[in-house]
């Protein structure tokens, strides 16, 4: 995802949207570790 290299906050928004999509797809069977998979590694420096 080199297109987000200069815009880490946009990457976080993109991944948040993908997390939401995954939760909708999985419904009540959503894995509680989805946050770890989608967002925990995306660090935005201030």
UniProtKB/TrEMBL annotation:
<protein>
    <submittedName>
        <fullName>Uncharacterized protein</fullName>
    </submittedName>
</protein>
């Amino acid at each position: 995802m080199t297109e987000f290299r200069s815009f880490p906050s946009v990457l976080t928004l993109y991944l948040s949207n993908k997390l939401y999509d995954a939760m909708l797809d999985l419904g009540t069977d959503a894995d509680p570790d989805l946050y770890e998979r989608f967002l925990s590694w995306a660090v935005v420096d201030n």
